[in-house]
Amino acid sequence: MTTVFNDPTQFAQDMLAGFCRLHADTVEPVTGGAIRATETPEGKVAVVIGGGSGHYPAFVGWVGPGMADGAVVGNVFSSPSTQQVHAVATAAERGGGVFLSYGNYAGDVLNFDLAQERLITDGIPTKTVVVSDDITSASTEERHKRRGTAGDLVVFKIAGAAAEAGYDLDGVVEVAERANDATFSFAVAFAGCTLPGDSEPLFTVPAGRMGVGMGVHGEPGIGEQDVLPASELATMLVDKLLTERPEGATRAAVLVNGLGGTKYEEMFVLWNSVAPLLDEAGVEMVAPEVGELITSLDMTGVSLTLFWLDPELEELWLAPAQTPGFRRGAAVATTRRTRTATDAAADTSFPPASEASQASAQRLVEIGTRLAAVLHEHEEEFGKLDAIAGDGDHGRGMTNGADAALNALTAAVNAGAGVASALAAAGDAWGDRAGGTSGALWGAGLRAAAGALSDEEAPSGAAVRAAVRAALDQLLSYGKAERGDKTMLDALIPFTEALEQDDRDLSAAWSAAADIATEHAQATADLTPRIGRARPLAERSIGHPDPGAVSLALVMRTAAP
């Protein structure tokens, strides 16, 4: 259980502050994460990595010479926001472009992709390689759907070494893609992990059993079986990974990774069985690593990774690196940067607004107050529902987003903002604070809805309907989901259609549409997820409604005018 914390909702921020205080000679805090505190050459490609907290030494522990120039730090098991990615990348870039890399999870993909678009718009060349090494999360034919696990370390190390050696942006991308294609991981777990502030783990494994095929966000495995002796566990892991051995490959980096609650002594016992099996299979092991490489809070479990090498990849794998969480080779000479990264002051000014629009903005504060309260009441319920086939962070993500949106609304109203500007500020705050897929979609949806409103007049019923439609269209564009995929859209689409087709006054039409959304949200229990983290665990999800759809329906009922 995670027991050392203050406010559990501030765990990631407190962790980052303590880490940067301890490693002030290496890293420097910036909005959204941390960057190197040491000088890097002008024109160097900036390697920016990131993801949710709870995985140390990933991701912030890998900032330093030979690896990353910056790391974006999201909430526990939740993707960082678009704003965070953009802020860290902007602080880290040195004129050679930005290379982004992260594990293949829907929230990370959405937020990093949006940040990449913003960086390119800013005139900063930016490219991405998504890590997809977990062989249990998709077939070989659908390799692009595999999630990123301990292979993150491999891809980040190769990209960081290439950038340090002076490769240009295209060159860094090429070797990182090659490394990703040559990396394969398989994990098991003996006990689940517990989020800060929670009393129960995200999942449990019966005594004497182990979950097979675990993700690093606490996702339960794809199956269970009896716990095996170390020698038999090693055989299972090695045999499974060797089925995807590239033709003619002989040399490999090997990683035995502890997921957080497994002692180093246990990993050494496992390695004592893994190494001979690889020797027998004709694998020449190069600079193997055994230890906590990418964890999952206090999850008890292990993973095995094989990274098949060619001469160039081997040279980059062996190249020096000097970070708080990973060191390789001789010490790298560094000079502390003379400048201090500073964050631009937030612009709190808003366009002029009519009294009618300001009054509507004030009503948004009242709605936001109700929403924050009701979401806190249901936080644990949504977390448990999400943990059935996901990582259990949905409840906390919704409360974090609603709290931030309420604070932004209040500040905007106090500054004289109209309804459009206030709602836009709420959307930005929700997306930034909540993180993850849900946070990004709520932020983008609220922003789009604001674009259909005006600071010059109070919104009419038609304008509100147009705002809801704008939000839906934005989510259909960004989220890449469809009706029937078992997502929040299965509630939002029928809500929008019902609201548009009901010509009664807005209050009556909204309440009726919210009831319809609730019915459709509950009906998602019969659906099978086709995208997102729940997809690999589709069978577990059947019989349970989608948490995103259920929470959206609750929001719509609570927000009824």
Automatic annotation (TrEMBL):
Which SMART domains does the UniProt entry name for this protein?
Dak2 (SM01120)
Q: Name one GO cellular component term.
A: cytosol
User: Does this UniProt record's set of keywords contain Isomerase?
Assistant: no
Give the highest taxon in the source lineage: Bacteria
The alphabetized list of GO BP terms reads:
glycerol catabolic process; phosphate-containing compound metabolic process
A Pfam family recorded for this sequence: Dak1
The record lists the membrane-crossing segments as none
Q: Where is the DhaK domain?
A: 7-326
Q: Which UniProt keywords apply?
A: ATP-binding, Kinase, Nucleotide-binding, Transferase
Under the heading Gene3D superfamilies, the entry gives: 1.25.40.340, Dihydroxyacetone kinase, domain 1, Dihydroxyacetone kinase, domain 2
Q: Entry's InterPro entries?
A: DhaK_dom (IPR004006), DhaL_dom (IPR004007), DhaL_dom_sf (IPR036117), Dihydroxyacetone_Kinase (IPR050861)
Residues in domain DhaL? 362-561
What GO MF terms are annotated? ATP binding; glycerone kinase activity
Q: What is this protein called?
A: Homodimeric dihydroxyacetone kinase
Which species is this UniProt entry from? Ruania alba
Q: What is the lineage of its organism?
A: Bacteria, Bacillati, Actinomycetota, Actinomycetes, Micrococcales
